[in-house]
Specification:
Length: about 350
């Protein structure tokens, strides 16, 4: 059983809940226990992830102050108080933010081993170099998809269960339709009553089959005038002609020309400052890196953070670009060690 006291402080506004769950499992496997688990977040985030916090045993620290870096300041103040009161051996900060560098130095001065956990795609090299050990975890969307699938399955089971049957014996009877007024009649000169001529007072029309059975005359279907039928035919013919003309125009239209810019043979190559830092596959960039790091061709190894600082000063590496990708793209001639968390770089003969 581990005798080290481990404290986990989470910047819940910076890393996803999937990364938080991976961080808890990783620390449990490495140390056997995580004694202090706190997540610093807003009130909305605490309500949204309250089920996950309860399941992982994390205490949410709600920050009601509004403003830039207010959550980070709350985490830093609480971290110093906890270190003085609880005396942990290992402090783990789950955040990809590089603003915690002063806090890391202060906790290390108090005798703690400070480790960092960040989310892939959000962590820069400056953040990793501050901690004694830093682990980058990848965010997985499978957990969110699983929750959605479970919700849909529950909805499908409810639909298959069928509608709920209720007792209609006590239900009130449906309202009766009002009786129709009797059709008005008129008396002819002979004294015989005939139906009125008004269609609105005559009631619903009698179908042809019913009229034939009863001997009544079926209503006549009004015929379409000849002029209207001819106008409809002329409109359809005009529409067909317009469609045929449009298709013919599209078929005969010339194909669009795509201009391709080709670099002339023997042209002077662009300088490294004129192109993005990610284009590092050419021989000129490799030679520029070797000129910037002369210890490597001489057979010596160089600290990775020192190499990164030189490359950025020479504008061969962007401010937020990854040095690992840069060395991986340069013809595979650079070797980084150790493999898990590289801190040294050397030139392969």
């Amino acid at each position: 059983m581990s005798t080290e006291r481990v404290m986990l402080l989470i910047d819940a506004d910076n890393v996803s809940m999937d990364v938080v769950e991976q961080a808890v499992r990783l620390l449990m496997n490495q140390h056997g226990a995580v004694h202090v688990r706190r997540a610093y977040c807003t009130a909305e985030s605490a309500v949204k992830h309250q089920a996950d916090f309860k399941r992982l045993g994390i205490k949410p620290m709600v920050n009601l102050a509004a403003g830039k870096n207010s959550t980070d300041i709350a985490l830093a103040v609480d971290a110093v108080d906890l270190v003085l009161a609880e005396r942990p051996d290992v402090v783990v900060i789950a955040s990809s933010d590089s603003d915690f560098a002063p806090l890391v130095h202060r906790l290390r001065e108090k005798g703690c081993v400070v480790r960092g956990i960040g989310q892939q795609g959000k962590t820069a090299d400056e953040t990793r170099d501050v901690y004694d050990d830093f682990t980058v975890l990848e965010h997985h969307k499978s957990s969110v998809a699983a929750k959605t699938t479970r919700a849909r399955s529950a909805t499908g089971r409810a639909a298959k269960a069928g509608p709920v049957t209720t007792d209609v014996s006590s239900a009130p009877p449906p309202p009766r339709a009002p009786k129709k007024a009797p059709a008005a009649k008129k008396t002819t000169a002979r004294g015989r009553a005939e139906p009125a001529a008004s269609a609105s007072l005559a009631g619903p029309a009698v179908p042809a089959s019913a009229a034939a059975a009863t001997g009544a005359a079926a209503p006549a279907v009004p015929a379409v005038p000849a002029k209207k039928a001819a106008a409809r035919k002329r409109g359809k013919a005009a529409a067909s002609a317009d469609l045929a003309a449009t298709v013919q125009t599209m078929v005969q239209a010339p194909e669009p020309t795509i201009a391709v810019e080709v670099e002339a043979p023997g042209a002077k190559p662009h300088l490294e400052a004129d192109r993005p830092a990610t284009r590092t596959g050419n021989r000129g960039t490799l030679q520029a890196v070797l000129d910037c790091l002369p210890e490597l061709p001489a057979g010596k190894s160089l600290a990775l953070n020192v190499a990164v600082q030189r490359l950025r000063e020479a504008q061969l590496l962007g401010k937020n670009s990854s040095s690992l990708k840069l060395f991986a793209q340069l013809s595979g001639r650079f070797e980084l060690s150790p493999a898990g968390n590289p801190t040294q770089v050397r030139w392969r003969d």
